[in-house]
Write a structure and sequence with these properties.
Blueprint: E1 15-16, H1 19-25, E2 35-38, E3 42-48, E4 56-57, E5 62-65, H2 86-96, E6 100-108, E7 111-129, E8 135-143
Parallel strand pairs: 3-6
Antiparallel strand pairs: 1-7, 2-3, 4-5, 5-8, 6-7, 7-8
Length: 146
């Protein structure tokens, strides 16, 4: 069952060692996928891990590339994305206005960790040509305010 909002006492700025740690505490349940949630209820969390070249992160707005279309061996975008699967969960979040937890892979003390950035909401989405020349879904997220 997805939880929309903060988990336990975790707050923005908290750091997590790896994807397993995120999953175990319920911050982001999938251990590999970048989107947690369902088509019916929406996305409860996303991870920006540097896997998609079209992602953009700023404090006041995140442009999150949809999932799909990447070659699993090279990580490169090789086909157009489609409004299916986890992308439908993000679209549903835009429709419901529910908050999405955002986690971001960051450099920390010579290594990498996942930082909880806080709650965001999906304000819009559209298809656009990505850096590799294929159609990519772009989801815009802004900090969530009640």
């Amino acid at each position: 069952m997805p939880i929309f909002g903060h988990i336990a006492s975790y707050r923005p700025g908290d750091l997590f060692e790896n994807r397993l740690a995120l999953s175990l505490v319920g911050m982001h349940r999938p251990r590999r996928a970048g989107v947690s949630g369902t088509q019916a209820e929406g996305a409860d969390s996303i991870v920006l891990a540097g896997a998609y070249e079209d992602d953009e992160f700023a404090e006041e707005e995140i442009i999150y590339s949809g999932s799909g279309g990447r070659d699993l061996r090279t990580g490169r975008q090789v086909t157009n994305q489609e409004m299916t699967g986890r992308n439908l969960a993000l679209r549903r979040s835009q429709e419901t206005g529910r908050p999405v937890r955002v986690l971001h892979k960051v450099r920390y003390e010579g290594g990498e960790m996942f930082r909880y950035e806080g709650l965001f909401r999906v304000t819009k989405y559209y298809f656009a040509q990505g850096k590799a020349g294929f159609q990519v879904l772009k989801f815009h997220l802004v900090p969530f305010s009640t």
